[in-house]
Amino acid sequence: MASLRNASPRLRNYFKEHYIPQVCEALLCGLLVTCPKDPLKYLEKMIILIMENGLEHIRWDMCIDPSMRPMIRRLSETYLEQLFGLDDQLMTPELMIKACTFYTGNLVKTHFCTWRDITIPPVNESEVLAKKLEIANNYNDFRCKRYLFSHWHFYVKDQKERLKASLARLQQLFYSHRLIISLSKWKDKARQKCLRRENKLLLEHEIQLNKWKSKQKINIIEEEFVFPEENVPEPVSDGSEFDISLLPESAILKDESMKYISESCPGVLYLNLSNTSITNRTMRLLPRHFHNLQNLSLAYCRNFTDKGLQYLSLGNGCHKLLYLDLSGCTQISVKGFRNIANSCTGIMHLTINDMPTLTDNCVKALVEKCSRITSVVFIGAPHISDCSFKALSTCNLRKIRFEGNKRITDACFKYIDKTYPNISHIYMSNCRRITDGSLKSLSPLKHLTVLNLTNCIRLGDSGLRHFLDGSASTKIRELNLSNCTHLSDASLYKLSDCCPNLNYLSLRNCVLLTNIGVDHIVNIFSLLSIDLSGTVISNEALVALSRHKKLKELSLSECYNITDAGIQAFCKGSLILEHLDVSYCSQLSSDIIKALAIYCTNLTFLSIAGCPMITDSAMEILSAKCHYLHILDVSGCVLLTDKMLQHLQRGCKQLRILKMQYCTLISQEAAKKMSSVVQQQEYKPDDPPLWFGYDREGKPLEEQQNIKYKRSHLNSLRRSMQ
Q1: How far apart are CA 412 and CA 456, in angstroms?
Q2: Which residues form the F-box/LRR-repeat protein 15-like leucin rich repeat domain (predicted)?
Q3: 582 near 588, Cβ under 8 Å?
Q4: pLDDT for res 231
């Protein structure tokens, strides 16, 4: 009979309520034991018996004769509960196995313990307890020792680390102390050496000065007995170059003279016809006879026309022309530039200055066929705009120069970045519409060596930082940012790291520059020349500059916060100084001249204009030591007299240019005599202008009057710049 475990609950309840498993069990057990001959009658008889006794009292063996009933222990009410799945799994074969296993194990344990108690002799409990206590004590001692050992281990380890750190600190202190001692000794030796050198220089200065003075006394005595010399004509130089502009005007006006020159000198390479009155007839001679002409200057020649430029293509033409200067030729139109392009396609260098009529169309007409142009100079061409740069994109420009242009914007620098990757020189002076974006566009140029952005007043720290971050800063050698008043110290700290090849730096009139910025500039070891005029730096900056040791040129004009002490400190560390400009620093005295004479004997340029406290004795010391002086400006030095000129004649034999305006104590006779000694001289015995800030005796003017005239002077300068 199949199991009813998986039957429906209703069927299972039915079987259970009517005791069907018990009835079947009793009937089956009776059939299996008695084995009647007629099973059906037997079953009928037994069913009647069960009905009489009731289903509640049914047992599994009630259908078996009592004499035949087996002696079996009953495990459950009926086995059919398991058969029909009505036992709810209270007794299963698995449970029976577990029960038997537990019972067997319990018997084994009981008998084994009894056997052990009988076999093993009894032990004293006190000894067992003592042994256990001993084991516990030993274990406790072990734990305490392990605890103490771990703490001791960490303590020893920490002490070792502290000892190691202390030894390292002591060793560092020892090295630092030894280094301090070494540096102190080196510093003392260096100080002593510097002091010995300074004393030596002072001693040599005194000796040379005494010798020079004694020599001058002898010369003065000898001059009283000198006989007048005969006038010897100066030798005529036999130069190979001949500048036609030096001829007399009457000779220049004769076109026949040019004809004779052209026929007699066919091998001329350089021809300068600037400021002459040549006409179209002269222009016709150029291509016929000067076949090898390479450099031609027609600057400020206004008598030829566009037709004259057309003659350049006649005959063999001027096809070898490389350099052309058309400055001031305002009569040339777009047609004339087109004639030049047709005749001189090999032009590489083009100069067109002072040309207010020059337009973008002129440039476009020229570059249509002159694609070899590498340098252009457009100074005083206000109508040139960004379109000209776009037209010049067909050329491989390496040098551009613009000044005083208000139409050029940042867009032209975008053309430079994209079309002129090999450009090396950029001059964009007084171009007011240029901003920081231009510097950012120039930063990728890898061959840029010269950058001049003077009077580009919109430039600031942001643009300069962008420029220094690019590859252009690595090769830059000259950087001129004069009058860029928005620049400050913040943009200068990267100069020393980004410009390792910088030789010339101009920060003139950058009023936001302070001593901190100069400290950054000092780290540019390649720097040879620096212009800090018009800034607010003080003696601290000059002391920092004295550590550079390699500066040859320094300009400090209108730096009102520096004093004699700062100049003296700078001179002590700048023995190779050749150029110094301290003009209009009226607070300086003659002490700076003595410092220059002692330490800077290689001086070739000196400007002390506007320094009213300079005296003849100081200039005597300068003349005695600085024998290589070529250019000297003492304008406004009102205490100087004719003796200064005598000292210069005797000591500064190489002096070529002398400026001494507003020197009221210098006579006209002495100035006239001095003019025959130097090549160029500027002399004016008038009183100093009011904007100098002092009168003819060197005394300061009243404060309010001085400020008034300085402001008016600055306003006039600004109007002229605009």
Answers
A1: 15
A2: 254-366, 471-681
A3: yes
A4: 40
What is the H or E stretch that residue 45 is in? helix 39-53
Q: Which residues partner with 323 through β-bridges? A: 295, 349
Is the separation of the CB atoms in 665 and 640 below 8 Å? yes
DSSP-assigned letters across all residues of 647-687: HHHHH-TT--EEEEET-TTS-HHHHHHHHTTSSEEEEE-SP
Residue 706 has what pLDDT? 54
Long-range contact set of residues 435-439: C-beta below 8 Å, sequence gap at least 24: 435/410, 435/459, 435/463, 436/460, 436/462, 436/463, 436/464, 436/466, 437/410, 437/413, 437/463, 438/410, 438/413, 438/463, 439/463, 439/464, 439/466, 439/467
CA distance 485 to 511: 6
Q: Locate tokens 């006649």: which residue?
A: 314
Distance in angstroms (rounded) separating the CA atoms of residues 538 and 303: 55
**131-157 burial: b if 16+ Cβ within 10 Å, else e:** eeeeeeeeeeeeeeeeeeeeeeeeeee
Please write the tens of the pLDDT for every residue from 202-245: 777 777 777 777 777 676 665 554 434 434 344 433 434 445 55
b/e burial code for range 217-249 (CB count within 10 A of at least 16 → b): eeeeeeeeeeeeeeeeeeeeeeeeeeebeeeee
Residues 23/50, Cβ–Cβ less than 8 Å = yes
- Cβ-based neighbour number of residue 583 at 10 Å: 23
In Å, how far are 130, 146, 509 from 142, measured between CA atoms? 18, 6, 85
3-class SS at 429? strand
Q: Are 536 and 507 in contact (CB under 8 A)?
A: no
What residues form DSSP beta bridges with 529?
504, 553
- pLDDT on residue 511: 92
Contacts of 223 (CB under 8 A, 6+ apart): none
Q: Provide the pLDDT for residue 230.
A: 39
Low-confidence ranges of the chain (pLDDT < 70): 1-5, 70-92, 121-123, 217, 219-254, 256-260, 264, 315-317, 703-722
Query: Burial of 302 by CB count in 10 Å (0-12 exposed, 13-18 middle, 19+ buried)?
Result: middle
Structure confidence at residue 233 (pLDDT): 41
**What's the pLDDT at 719?**
45
Kindly give, in sequence order, each residue whose CB lies less than 8 Å from that of residue 310, ignoring residues fewer than 6 positions away. Answer: 339, 342, 343
State pTM to two decimals: 0.68
Backbone φ and ψ for 399, nearest 5 degrees, come out as -150, 130
Neighbours of 585 (CB within 10 A): 23
Residue 172, token pair as written in the block: 């560092």
- In tens, the pLDDT along 637-681 reads 999 999 999 999 988 999 999 999 999 999 999 999 999 999 999
Residue 85 is predicted with a pLDDT of: 52
Residues contacting residue 616 through CB under 8 Å, at least 6 positions apart: 639, 640, 641, 643, 644, 647
CA–CA distance, 146 with 137 (Å, rounded to integer): 14
